[in-house]
């Protein structure tokens, strides 16, 4: 049995650790022909693989593939042909050709490969939003003022700044424990995030009409059946679904306006699921705080009013990009292939 992996730099520009990890996984089962193309190499798969008629397992990562190419792989039994770094579905013409030839065709079944990375990042944004960690880091570089916890005039007052208290009491702050965290979604990312904050002692509720009951139970989450009810008592509001035709604009201005004053909004999947104009308006009016990795405009212009605000934590859309997410991408593809004995 001959196994071949061919990877183009256009794939590795997005997933730089996938191909090598996939290679290692297959090498543990036996010999693998691993072909890494040079930048600018636009040869088709049939021109690259020298003995296509001997190949039985194939992974092609953003390499040009034609129907004529595949017809030369006479012994092929299993294949994954990835046309683009985000285009995990195989082109229909090629999928049909493989099906007619009796070849099992594989692709990514979901975006679960970055679920852990994004959900952990969401937890980090939540903690940063509660405790103002990025703001105090920045302030310390240019001033000693962050070290001064004395109340105004040196006179202690109820519910105001005091010894080692650096949180902003105008917004949700302090610990995750005890907070009412309301999540839109119960999928790969949202269910993990829910389990994290549940473990830390939060009161967690989630709305997701497509998720099964076990998704809520495993995450320790109370299921809310009505989206409009979810935000009414939210201290932390976390819209955490992927952006699709059905979810675009799911969280309307009416929903955002219903959030209690001081609520922390955490955005870590896609901004397009929310009415960002409404979020911007309430953030800029100091009505809510925001911890976000995704935005309505990317990159944010340097004069964007969200940047550097006392009630905003911002990162440049990198929640899902970890080496572990790359490894998971490879593993979730590799596990679909039949194991090969040494």
Automatic annotation (TrEMBL):
- Coiled-coil spans are none
Q: Which residues form the D-isomer specific 2-hydroxyacid dehydrogenase NAD-binding domain?
A: 164-319
Q: Which UniProt keywords apply?
A: NAD, Oxidoreductase
Q: InterPro entries of this UniProt entry?
A: D-iso_2-hydroxyacid_DH_PdxB, D-isomer_DH_NAD-bd, NAD(P)-bd_dom_sf
Family recorded in the similarity comment: Belongs to the D-isomer specific 2-hydroxyacid dehydrogenase family.
Q: What is this protein called?
A: NAD(P)-dependent oxidoreductase
